Batch of 3 targets.
Target 1
Amino acid sequence: MRQDDEGPIAANAMDRVSWALRRAEWAVQALKEQRLRPLGMAAAQYSLLISVHTDPGLTGAELARRLNVTPQAVASLVARLEQRGHLERQPHPRHGHVQELHLTDAGRDALRQADAVIVEIEQRIAEKLGPEDSTRLTALLDQVADAVREA
């Protein structure tokens, strides 16, 4: 018996909810990368910028947890965005050794342009699904997230 044949694998393994979620995420991420590339931005940079916009003052460690990436990955992204003038570090008001991240004016401009691209992608999805299914999908995905957190 070969090692990869030791345990049973369900015939419908690729039809599971988790794989459907992953296929959808791959498709969305690929389109985001393609559409953001002309702006000189990657999807990961957009995610970081929108997170800092939503919660100004996040630290690198907080961003790593939020984006589900390593602190080293965040540090690399932050360094690139800081070099472009999109982010600035400011000392934490109570913990001087901690650096908070804030968008610069250039960062807000870059984020506006990138967000317009993301809105177009989301509109494309919503048009394909229709308003009722789009709303329902969002609610179902929230339920999936809740179920996984409860596990």
Target 2
Amino acid sequence: MGRKKVTITIYGAEQICASCVGAPGSKDTYEWLQAAIARKYNADVVEYEYIDINKPPEAGKHKQFAKRVLEEDMFFPIIFVNDEMVAEGIPRLKTIYQALDQHGVKLLA
């Protein structure tokens, strides 16, 4: 029986957000988030993707959202669980964990 995948998308840039001085970079957050989720959840149903807002793929939704981040001066990294934005700027694990729970991702035994 196939289980539904959950996709975590992190939008960020090499340069740290001007309003997030002292916070880890977007790539560091991407790696940290994978490790934190793998310690608590059955991570085989979770997929990750990192989108550089300065070099987004040509795919429609990623390119459009990256443009929006830049135009609206949004704080990054921005984290989505499936199509729901769960963090902007410095992420909180509790909020991300709640989104994973809502999507039925199982805790480790």
Target 3
Amino acid sequence: MNQRKDTYRAALQRGPDAAVPRPVKVAQLYTRYVRVTIELDTDLPRDLMRWVGSPVSALGRAGAAALRPLRNAS
């Protein structure tokens, strides 16, 4: 039990794996006067779903709960 607690505490102190480089897609655009390099994070859709998923589902549940009395009143 103590070893599990110690492992858990050590993991909390480490935080996220910031040392691991994230995969990136690079798109380059060259014109006569402008050179643009765009780096796209390939993990962005997964991160957005993780950040936005729970607030959106909570909003959906709240909306359904608010509309339920209106449907029952008809």
